[in-house]
Write a structure and sequence with these properties.
Radius of gyration of chain B: 13 Å
Number of helices of chain A: 0
Number of strands of chain A: 11
Largest sheet of chain A: 7 strands, mixed
Low-confidence stretches of chain A: none
Largest sheet of chain B: 6 strands, mixed
Oligomer: heterodimer
Order of helices and strands of chain B: EEEEEEEEEEE
Distance between the termini of chain B: 40 Å
Largest interface: A-B, 28 and 26 residues
Order of helices and strands of chain A: EEEEEEEEEEE
Number of strands of chain B: 11
Strand content of chain A: over 45%
Shape of chain B: globular
């Protein structure tokens, strides 16, 4: 069974630009969550999608948005990039409909904003 | 704002030592507690998911316990090996669909 994949793995953008990150969950998984990790911080929850619906959103500004497609693939978009958006972005999928199921993480996208 | 605290922040032990870490979380609205191992240059990998007070889980030399009434979970590693070197994350689920992660305990095991 293929794992969670994320593209691209590395990205360099300049302030003010926008970026789209992609996540393909494990086949059959309908829940996809996105997390941001910055130095010294734990994984910060961005949002979670289940069957194309956003079910939960973390405390991030509206510049961060996402969506999920009918094949469960998910994209995350960040508009008007700021230096503080430089981080590792992880997506995770799980097989169930609730947080009692273990998350399977992708390798992450390392975003650098200059 | 939900706070999940892990201690210690980092730990350096010798091969063969046994060690344990603590995860503290709010005792109200408990739904689940996860433990993950995150090795350098890899993805976080699930160790345990616990949902009931008093749960004890074991995988090889690693085990975990859960106390939802007082809001803590312990992770134990018996006879640490260099390959156990990683960051150990706990995540608290206050509800059906969300996980709140702690900042992790970084473990280094020297041969």
């Amino acid at each position: 069974k293929a794992g969670v994949t994320q593209t691209p793995r590395y990205l360099i953008k300049t302030r003010g630009q926008q970026v789209t990150l992609s996540c393909s969950p494990i086949s059959g998984h309908r829940s996809v969550s996105w997390y941001q990790q910055t130095p010294g911080q734990g994984l910060q929850f961005l949002f979670e999608y289940f069957s194309e619906t956003q079910r939960n959103k973390g405390n991030f500004p509206g510049r961060f948005s996402g969506r999920q497609f009918s094949n469960s693939r998910s994209e995350m978009n960040v508009s008007t990039l700021e230096l503080g958006d430089s981080a590792l972005y992880l997506c995770a999928s799980n097989s169930g409909a609730s947080s009692a199921y273990e998350q399977y993480f992708g390798p992450g996208t390392r975003l650098t904003v200059t | 704002i939900l706070n999940v605290e892990q201690s210690p922040q980092s730990l350096h032990v010798q091969e063969g030592d046994s060690t344990n870490f603590t995860c503290s979380f709010p005792s109200s609205n408990f739904y689940a507690l996860h433990w993950y191992r995150w090795e350098t240059a890899k993805s976080p990998e699930a160790l345990f998911v616990m949902t009931l007070n008093g749960d004890e889980k074991k995988k090889g030399r690693i085990s975990a316990t859960l106390n939802t009434k007082e809001g803590y979970s312990y992770l134990y590693i018996k006879g640490s090996q260099p390959e156990d070197s990683a960051t150990y994350l706990c995540a608290f689920a206050p509800g059906f669909q969300k996980l709140v992660f702690g900042t992790g305990t970084r473990l280094l095991v020297s041969p």
